[in-house]
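Hello,

Our lab assistant flagged a job as stuck in the queue for most of the afternoon. It eventually completed. Since we weren't sure the result was trustworthy after the delay, we are filing this so someone can double-check. Below is the sequence as submitted and the structure that was eventually returned. Let us know if re-running is recommended.
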Amino acid sequence: MTDERRKRETPRLEDLPDLLTVREVAEILRVSPLTIKRWGKRGKLPAIRINSRGDRRYRKEAVLYLLGIQQKGMNT
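-- returned structure --
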């Protein structure tokens, strides 16, 4: 995959949903999905469990915090 194509496929942070999947977070942070799950267990990136299977979702604000990005309008 070329760099130009990768840039086109990477969504803008503003366009991301409020809750992100393990895979989406892994792609944003450029780490493996297993790393995201481990960070959740250690409390570095808290997960929200949904449905009866216990699928994980992550708040966009938490991911942006890890990146050192503060959204407009956030007073933290």
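-- support follow-up --
The delay was a queue issue, not a problem with the job. The result is valid. Residues 3-67 form a domain with the Multidrug-efflux Transporter Regulator; Chain: A; Domain 2 fold (CATH 1.10.1660.10). The radius of gyration is 13 Å.
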